[in-house]
Amino acid sequence: MENTFIRELDINIGSRSTVLKLHQKIEGDVSCVVWDAAIILAKYLEKLNENNVGYFRNKAIIELGAGVGCVGITAAALGGDVTLSDLPEALPLLNLNVIENKMCWEGNQGLIRIIPLDWGTEVELKSPDIILLADCVYYEESVLPLIRTLKALARSDTEILVCQEIRDTQKQVECWELFIKNLKKYFTITIVPMEDHHEEFSSLDIVILKLIKL
């Protein structure tokens, strides 16, 4: 794909290490780069796997707003059965990264499929064990559709991990507040303590939330 460059990310899988090679666009919108929140969530998944060997093995996982696929490909490299979803226009770059990193996720018996998904529309998917979101709360108009999709997908025992950079512009503050306000109606929210984040990949302005459907 033209006008892209590669960002590498080391992922430890048990006693071995693999390197994800993620194509991102030189120019584009929200689904074209590796956001810091995606890296922090990916490394948090790595730490979960280190503390609970085989944590993701054979678990059904869906990433919403997958973008370039950093988080979901990491989950597959850790052995997960992963569905990557985003808007149709984001899928070519996402597919490129899935193919680029095929040896990483296939080598640990992970699985990946890619689907188009517009939040708020009817969801015809089996409820997963884990739902992942990284830096998905950007636009006020997408907040309620995103929550509707989370409600439709989640079971009462589905683990939902939301990683978000908390930005200080008024528009972004209001968007995040709207998200949390409406999220509380349907989910319990637990903030993952900073000491539980990856030791080298954490930031005070990036939070990880665990959600469970009420």
Question: What would you note in describing this structure?
Answer:
The protein has one domain (4-213): 3-Layer(aba) Sandwich (Rossmann fold). It contains six helices and nine strands, in the order ββαβαβααββαβαββ. It has helices at residues 36-51, 70-77, 91-100, 102-106, 140-153, 170-183; strands at residues 4-13, 16-25, 60-64, 81-86, 111-116, 130-134, 159-165, 187-191, 206-213. It has a seven-stranded mixed sheet with strand order 5-4-3-6-7-9-8. The protein has a two-stranded antiparallel sheet with strand order 1-2. Strand 6, helix 5 (140-153) and strand 7 (159-165) form a beta-alpha-beta unit. The longest helix is centred in the first third of the chain and has 16 residues, at 36-51. The radius of gyration is 16 Å and the shape is globular.
CATH architecture: 3-Layer(aba) Sandwich
- Overall structural domain count: 1
Structural class: alpha/beta
Largest sheet: 7 strands, mixed
Q: CATH topology, which one?
A: Rossmann fold
- Please give the CATH class: Alpha Beta
The parts where pLDDT drops under 50 for at least 5 residues are none
List the helices and strands in order: EEHEHEHHEEHEHEE
Q: How is the largest sheet built, in terms of strand order?
A: 5-4-3-6-7-9-8
Q: In the CATH hierarchy, what is the superfamily? A: Vaccinia Virus protein VP39
Please tell me what the overall shape is.
globular
Total of helices? 6
| Distance separating the two termini | 43 Å
- Our Rg estimate from Cα atoms comes to 16 Å
The helix content, as a percent range, equals 25-40%
Q: Care to count the β-strands? A: 9
Strand content: 25-35%
Average pLDDT, rounded to a whole number, is: 93
